[in-house]
Amino acid sequence: MKKYILILFFLIFNSCVSVKKHNEQRASFITPEKLKEDVDFAYSKLKKMHPNLYWYISKESLDHKFDSVKQTINQPLTPLQFYFKLQPVITSIREGHLSLKIPRKKITKREFRNLKHKKPLFSRFDYYVGNDHLYIIENRDSIQNIKPGTEILSINNVPVSKYMKKYKSLINSDGFNDTFQPYFLKDVFFSFYISENGLTDKATIETLYNGEKKTYTLTREVKSKNELEKDKELKKRNQEKKINDFVAYNNSYNRNFKFLDKDSTIAFIKIKSFSREFSDKFYKEAFTKIKNAKSSYLIIDVRNNYGGSLDEINNLYSYLAPEPYVLIKPSQLTSKTTPLKTNYFRKSKPFEYAIKSIFYPSYFISQAFSTYKKDGKVYYKMKASKLTQPNKNAFKGKVFVLINGGSFSASSIITSKLKNDKRVTLVGEETGGANDGTVAGFYSYQKLPNSKIKLPIGLLLVQPNITFTNTKRGVIPDVTITEGIQDIIDKKDPQLDWVKNEIAKEKEKGNK
């Protein structure tokens, strides 16, 4: 028992030392020469590993940007200051998956436990970004009766416009569409803010609502005993929560199925994330119900879905395909050894590290034989690039798919394929992900040697099996309908309403 106590003490002590060391390094100043080495390191790794680096920017232009940022580094900087210099250059590559990890301050286990007993400061609101303004669109806890539609003008006397300008330069979509940024920015705004300003228990915001300015002080309130018990209950996973992929953090489901009418002629599936977990069972049950109900219409909602598993979208496509299909083209990478650069032991705890060590030889062999060469290029073997048969319960009726700027990555892959195959009617706005594919799949997690900033590099060129548009834009809807802030506040859905009205018209014609 004493040995176990000593080991536990050692692990806790080592963890505390690690956090302290990380935070000291984060606050330290690094010489210009060392930072320039990091710039060169980042670019050299990108050129070596990224399979389509100059898709949206010429080599000459990107060379110039990396050289230019080095010329601006003429004094020592902290890793965070350096991040704000280098990340806009990474953003200019216009690959939405490609981004430096912002160097955050780490917290100790004790600090983490204390935070678990307190309510969030900013994430108790839902936000909307429009024309570079930040609005509150939902106040879930009715904090100080702040109304939906309230604009946040400043935080602790710093104008939000200053943060907007700064943070916009840190994110981008795939290619040249301009729909993705507002959706993603509303979700990451306060993540950037906290990384820059630290975790606090209080913040003062200046707001504007109906022409009237007000100032509020937000506080990180302590959770009551009942609220802590509710948190525990939310984390318990029953069968329904598993199949619909319950998210305890915001008390919602990633997947949802229902019929929109009494006679079950209109089926509706909403997918917030292609998380893969229990998705096979979800689709099996949903499409069995649709088949049994003999539904004529299906609406699939992938708005605000940032993507996820290729296997899941391949499975979903099998329920929509009228004939055998290939979802994606063979996925290209830079070399046969690239799959071995994926940081197999990343984030492994001591016990996990030991288990992974046992299976590493099998992993090594499988990855070593996962590539093949054709016409001088190297490709990775993927299930989604092979011929797939339609599911026996494949839907044969009319399909509508709802998309918007928050539809990214795997969401764009499947909608691009569906549009190319003329299987659906797309309704909404241009997707945030590119029509002709993306670079993602799996990653090599590089660390810049001096600033210690992490740079995950996507290793696979993943493209839908379509005739490419070469527009360097997102998937364009067949019917463009936008959603405004007032629609959200009023809980109206003009995109879904358009589909319902269209179906009603078709039903009316059929009855004549």
Automatic annotation (TrEMBL):
InterPro entries: ClpP/crotonase-like_dom_sf, Tail-specific_protease. It holds the Pfam family Peptidase_S41. Residues 236-482 form the Tail specific protease domain. Gene3D superfamilies: 2-enoyl-CoA Hydratase, Chain A, domain 1. PANTHER family: CARBOXY-TERMINAL PROCESSING PROTEASE CTPA (PTHR32060:SF30), TAIL-SPECIFIC PROTEASE (PTHR32060). This is S41 family peptidase. The lineage of its organism: Bacteria, Pseudomonadati, Bacteroidota, Flavobacteriia, Flavobacteriales.
